[in-house]
Amino acid sequence: MTKNMDSKKIDPCTLVLFGASGNLSRVKLMPGLYRLDSLGRLPDDMKILSVGRSPIAHEDWQAEVRGMLEAKFYNGIDETVFKRFIERNHYQANVSDDPDAMKKLEVRLTDESVFPQNFAYFLSIRPVDFATVVEQLASVGLTDERKYWRRVLIEKPFGTSLEKAEELQASITKHLKESQIYRIDHYLGKAALQNIMLTRFANHLFEPLWNNEHIDHVQITNNETLGVGDRTKFYDNTGALRDMGQSHLLQTLALVAMEKPIDFQPESIRTEKVKLLQSIRPIDTTNMDKQAFRAQYKEGNAPARDGHSEHVKGYLHELGYESSVETYAAMKLFIDNPRWKGVPFYVRTAKRMHEGSMAISIRFKKAPMELKEGQQQNWLILSIQPKESLKLEVQTKVPGLDIATRSISMDGQLRQETDDSVDSYETLLLNLMEGDPSLFLHIDEVKAQWKLIDPIVKTWAEDKSPVHQYPAGSRDPKDSGVIFESEDQFWRYSIELGGDKH
After folding, report:
1. What is the DSSP-derived secondary structure letter of residue 44?
2. Is the pTM of this model over 0.85?
3. How does pLDDT run across 375-406, given as a tens digit for each residue?
4. Terminal Cα distance for the chain, rounded
5. In 76-159, which residue ranges form alpha helices assigned H by DSSP?
């Protein structure tokens, strides 16, 4: 994001995709690059080198790429765009048992008659292989920046704890400068999430109210209707808090609560995010029951893709053994700075809920005049999913002879029919090639997030008491309200006027 929000000029470059035949590449990366090409956002001389485990002939790879695009774009692909796009695409086998595989890649890539020598590497590979691939690239000089820039994008997660994140950082910084490392959180590529800063700083209506004098509390929610599916082993080694809370939700909190940057240059934005994350008060694990809550979904009736409901198994049934790992996690956080002193931030994420949504819900303090007991308070809701919208709820007089109020909602759709529908990966791929790190994580952000989450994960792992259960397809467990600061606080559901109590 630049100061005037205009797009940057991209240097001639080669994008090297490791894990090119994997699901992420098929569903997101190749279709995303094709879309960028169709929008005229890729320079004419940009090339794509896909790196996979199996040898594939050039023509066969091009046919495979076409299949990826046809599977994604049901209405067909533009043949003119496809011709231009497919000519960018090349393939390189990186066979695991070939000791010279990386040297062969270096020989291929440094052919300046084919590939521009600015290299952006996208590591869509297993997290355990991040450090190894960086070391291998460095061993053949492919990370050297003496003549050209070299950037490495690392997929989530960056470590599984503070200790592991620091170990990974130590390994890769033997070969890379911090400016070369792009740690991705694909949620930061969502347009509605990026809109948070503009909502705050481009509207005089909001910024004067964005503090503890006017805001009662903030809720940041990411709920899904889906269960863990076939990711049972991964999920049981991770849990909801590390999977979503450590990354997506804390990054969202940073955007909501950070101070205004001195400008909208990438480093200025990241500086304020780091300050905010480092200002979050650590959880008191001796009193954690009032600050963090976990639960697991049990069998129940969950929303199905066809709009109806279906009876589904519980988490432990899917897993096949006993576990205390959470599929629902909620935290109460405080930010120790003058702007937010005393304001609770409630962060929650869950599987198998009654609705799938991501939203920031801000409740303002009670009005100076209450005309009736239980009068609703003002809410501002920034909806990220399933629709991108901004909703403001205010109190107005009910027409008639009596003095009474009711809530009305002023809704603004962030996306209009004529707007481009841009996937988050498209934004982040473009930012990688532009050299804009503002939507990627600095190591200090990663450390601050793990430092906050690790004590909760450790305390929960040591706690052998039964984990709360909630039926699949239900709302928040009633007992989750234990973390609220006051009795009149409740979980907000973004689609309902005035909120809803249990």
Report:
1. T
2. yes
3. 788 999 998 888 888 899 888 888 887 777 77
4. 41
5. 79-88, 101-109, 130-139
> Tokens 């279906």 sit at which residue?
310
Are the CB atoms for 363 and 216 separated by under 8 Å? yes
Distance CA 83, CA 85 (A): 5
Is 354 considered catalytic here?
A: no
Q: What is the pLDDT of residues 102-127, one digit of tens each?
A: 999 999 999 999 999 999 999 999 89
Kindly give, in sequence order, each residue whose CB lies less than 8 Å from that of residue 244, ignoring residues fewer than 6 positions away: 222, 329, 349
User: DSSP readout, 344-405?
Assistant: -EEEEEESSBSS-EEEEEEEEPPPS--SSTTPPPPEEEEEEESS-EEEEEEEEEPSSSS--E
Number of helical (H) and strand (E) elements in the chain, helices listed first = 15, 18
Q: Which domains does the chain have, with CATH numbers?
A: 14-184 (3.40.50.720), 190-420+442-483 (3.30.360.10)
Catalytic residue among 217, 248, 354, 442: 248
Which residue carries 């076939």 as its tokens?
Answer: 230
From residue 413, give the alpha-carbon distance in Å to each of 4, 166, 330, 392, 495: 23, 41, 28, 12, 13
Exposed, middle or buried by CB within 10 Å (0-12, 13-18, 19+), for 206? Answer: middle
Residue (of 253, 476, 299, 489) closest to 379 by Cα position:
489
Beta bridge pairs of residue 137: none
Residue 27 is which amino acid? Answer: V
